[in-house]
Amino acid sequence: MDATERKILDILQRDGRLANVELADKIGLSESPTYRRVKQLEASGVIEGYQAVVSQRALGLDVTAFVQVTMEKQPDRATERFREAVRAEPSIVECFATSGSHDYLMKVVAASIDDFSMLCMEKILKFPGVLHVESSFSLKQIKDSRVLPIPD
């Protein structure tokens, strides 16, 4: 990846709706080569897509919880059923397999503590293979960024 492509990525991460003519002006290329570079970055999978960033609070989702999940020892098929259940639940917005004392870390959003409680007790604890969950709640968001550092 050359310096121009890194600059394109940095700019588009901050404003994915930027018109090609504006992007070309910012990176110092004409429109056609800029367009080709962006299309190449998309085709190669470096740019995975574009999306609107929606306000969680504006949707009434005032609770953010981080749920650590410990699984029972189980065959791979049961683990896949757990992962399918996670992917199917819209309130689970992120989930990572982790090292350490827990198997998974999930970021969960809900309208209220009562809604989170119901989600946790009625769904997450009943997902295949779940042995134990431990939840922590966000008191205040300090940083919210999807902008990745672009290595030289």
Q: Can you walk me through this structure?
A:
With 152 residues, the protein is of the alpha+beta class. The chain folds into two domains: 3-43, Winged helix-like DNA-binding domain superfamily/Winged helix DNA-binding domain (Arc Repressor Mutant, subunit A, Orthogonal Bundle); 57-137, 2-Layer Sandwich (Alpha-Beta Plaits), CATH 3.30.70.920. 37% of the residues lie in helices and 20% in strands. The chain has a four-stranded antiparallel beta sheet. Helix 2 (20-27) crosses helix 3 (31-43). The mean pLDDT is 95.
Helix/strand layout:
Blueprint: H1 3-14, H2 20-27, H3 31-43, E1 63-71, H4 76-88, E2 92-97, E3 104-110, H5 113-122, E4 130-137
Antiparallel strand pairs: 1-3, 1-4, 2-3
Helix pairs in contact: 2-3
Q: What sequence of helices (H) and strands (E) makes up the elements? A: HHHEHEEHE
The number of distinct β-strands equals 4
User: Poorly predicted ranges (pLDDT <50, ≥5 residues)?
Assistant: none
Query: Distance between the terminal alpha carbons, to the nearest Å?
Result: 9 Å
Strand content: 15-25%
Overall geometry: elongated
User: Count of helical segments?
Assistant: 5
Radius of gyration: 20 Å
State the name of the first-level CATH class of the largest domain: Alpha Beta
State the CATH superfamily name of the largest domain. Lrp/AsnC effector binding domain/regulation of amino acid metabolism (RAM) domain
Structural class by secondary-structure content:
alpha+beta
Helix content: 25-40%
Report the mean per-residue pLDDT as an integer. 95
Total domain count:
2
